[in-house]
Amino acid sequence: MQEVAAPTSEGFVAMALRVLVSGILEFDSGKTWSVIALARSLLERGVRVALFKPVAGHNIWGSARTLRMSAELGMLVGNDVSAYMRYLGGIDPGVSNPVALALAYPDPLAFHGVSQYLSATVDTASMLVLARVHDCRAQRTQHYVFPVNVSRLTRAMRREVERLAERLGAAPAHPGETLESLSGPGAESVLEGCRERLEEDAEVLIVESFNNAVAPYNRIVDVVDFFVVVAPGRLMLYSGDRLRAAYELLGSVSRVDRILPVLSKPIATLELPIAESPIELAEHVGPIVDVIAP
Predict the structure, then answer these.
(1) What was the pLDDT predicted at 14?
(2) Which Gene3D superfamilies match (predicted)?
(3) Are residues 98 and 213 in the same domain?
(4) Which domain covers residue 286, as residue numbers?
């Protein structure tokens, strides 16, 4: 496996090779399963791997398992990290996912008309009910609850969220202000602190973006060695240098579909079969792993 040497006071030390995984589609590209499959394949080759989902949002409707897990752990976890834990084990959810956001559909009867309700369901600030920020450098975890949005849930869901918020010791906050703070430079510092922690014991760090964003935060683009674009049934592998060149050309574009036309020909492509689990999928990602960690 190729490694990058970085100078230290004692000479040179091997640093983790970094792989960024992003999806073309806003939902259901297959990023999480691809990340787990790549990690599993690398682990089977004896490579030390760490997974990093800097920012994760999940809708708690249909996520009863993660609600129970969050209550058991005393820490908000989402579907992506719970999948890491289920299929790979050895995952610290706070370090692997420093910023976790829980969304919930409100009660349509809490609005004056269906159009107002539908507008709320596509607005993160209107859907956000719980959040967690884990600061790896300060070794501190803070949970937040958003009463203005919780009050618009159905009665049963409101009870679930309020019960979990009490279990987590969540502090009341305003959703818009919280989201704004999470997009600032202070948040990037928190994310970088957890990345550094994960890289202490890893040979390969796999970073999963969110939705169809090229990167979960801008600074990660500066350090990735490989960029994997995921679509249903397809993986496309590019170099980190090519990603940075495209970023510079387009002026820091945010969405994968906008950057893909200028990335040129990928280093490798792979067609994926239908699989019942990411563990089964791991049997088919060897050609990509051969390039990442020969």
Answers:
(1) 56
(2) P-loop containing nucleotide triphosphate hydrolases
(3) no
(4) 1-48+202-294
